Task: inverse folding
């Protein structure tokens, strides 16, 4: 089955969400380090890689907000909806569905999936540990295959 590509509209909405989270979560804002500034520099050269980078950055945002109180989530959901971006709740649900598909499949196929599983392992508030052995095995298998293909261990750091 062919992986679904992100439409230009979906990508634009995801960029809005990323910009919003940067404004909400980062205290020391350097305009040259703003993710949307960095993305714009890279979009023309490597659009697929840039899309993947946006998704990885949003996964980080999900991790950073994983312990947010319900009032904060409701505020962010409202504000994200107002700017035409997916809400935090929508992003969480999508991530959860993808996570479950990966667990069922038992294999990580790309870096986006790798970082999703790594986020789960690295954040004990997201789990009770029951799935850890299976996920650690999946991560190890992907890392071994990736390093063998790339010949460079630093790519996953």
Result:
């Amino acid at each position: 089955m062919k992986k679904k590509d992100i439409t230009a509209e979906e990508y634009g909405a995801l960029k809005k969400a990323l910009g919003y989270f940067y404004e909400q979560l980062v205290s020391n804002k350097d305009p040259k380090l703003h993710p949307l500034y960095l993305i714009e520099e890279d979009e023309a050269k490597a659009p697929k890689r840039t899309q993947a980078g946006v998704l990885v950055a949003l996964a980080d945002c999900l991790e950073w907000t994983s312990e947010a109180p319900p009032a904060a989530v409701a505020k962010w959901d409202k504000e994200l909806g107002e700017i035409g971006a997916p809400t935090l709740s929508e992003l969480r649900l999508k991530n959860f569905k993808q996570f479950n598909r990966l667990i069922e499949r038992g294999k990580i196929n790309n870096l986006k999936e790798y970082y999703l599983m790594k986020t789960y392992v690295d954040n004990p508030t997201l789990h009770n540990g029951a799935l850890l052995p299976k996920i650690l095995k999946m991560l190890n298998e992907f890392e071994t295959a990736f390093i063998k293909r790339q010949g460079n261990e630093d790519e996953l750091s």
The radius of gyration is 16 Å. The helical segments are 8-25, 35-43, 47-64, 70-82, 88-105, 111-122, 132-150.
